[in-house]
Amino acid sequence: MTTKNKEPVLLIIQLSGGNDFMNTVIPFTSGVYFDNRPLVGIPENKMIPFTENLAFHPCAKSLKNLYEKGKVAIIQGIGYENSSRSHFRAMDIWHTCEPNHVATEGWLAKVIREIDPNSSNPVTAVNFGRGLPRALAAPGVIATSVGDLDNYGLMSEIEKEEEKIEDLEMFKRMYTPALGSGIVMDYLGETGRTVLTGADILAEAPINYSSTIEYSNNPIAKSLRDVARVHFAGLGTRIFYTNHAGYDHHAQEVPNHARLLTELTDAISDFMDDLDEHNASEEITILVFTEFGRRVKDNGSGTDHGSGGGAFIIGENVKGGLYSEYPSLNPSDWLYGEDLQHTIDFRGIYGTILQQWMGIDPHDIIGGDFEQISPFNKTLIR
Hints:
This protein is α/β, with parallel strands linked by helices. Helix content is about 35%, strand content about 15%. It is built from twelve helices and twelve strands. Strands 1, 5, 6, 7, 8, 9, 10, 11 and 12 form a nine-stranded mixed sheet that branches. Strands 2-4-3 form a three-stranded antiparallel sheet. The chain is globular, with a radius of gyration of 20 Å. The model has no long low-confidence stretch (mean pLDDT about 90).
């Protein structure tokens, strides 16, 4: 079944640091889980079971509620061959779909080029947060980035210009080590400050926004409220991007992961309610991803970088449920003797969203043909 009155929109939520998938979607019937996680393991009486074998973290109640409504597809064991344990390299691979060498174009920048080949709309893609994600960056491709709408609206022109310069400098510092100064400077020189020119357009978005939804006062909630305000303003944005940081839990994982999952899942739930209130829930699909999972065994205070993580596709048109296979918990199957093996390639999930949701041929964007899933009940593709 298809509907034809609106354009499909994609919202990406990046969980930076490496979310612990085993403590988010917990294999609670496995003794291996409890044996290897004496410190960070969630007590069984606090988990929220949702199948015979899996349970949500107790601070992911809002996600469980959305799952019960059929709006959450859980992608188990997402990753790629020879998973990198480096934050920078692993995230770069997710941003460019290129695990074998350093690429110069982000995967979403290629999508922007497909949607708006003449760069006629500077807010076709919008990032909420400082800097510009590599996923949105490519020479000649325009994307807009703004810290948050409320603060931006209060800035003087001089302050706005200073923030733009700081964001571009942040991009340069982040990516020069991997790409080299020549490529980065060529990108900034060619595209220049035009990558951020749409911020002034976005500043008008909150003027007519009204909602009964009360978002929490934390960065991810503020960002998703900004996404809602821009989307409701009808500016033609097709890709939204935002970041929820802090998931690198080598130590103090138990309290910190609980806080982050509460912030994240409550914010997504409020955002979904806001969409419903504004009759806008059918045109947005959310992808939540992280650069890698964590190791099976805890380190006495947290967990170290691993693989075989998880992702979520969330939306009104999503066919909720479990997709791919939960990585084997048999120690003989572990990568490097300590990591979960991936069971589906992340590029197949990107391909799924591009082809089935956005109506875009994914082959050249993701670099090949990869196994897809079928997570949608209906789409907006014309």
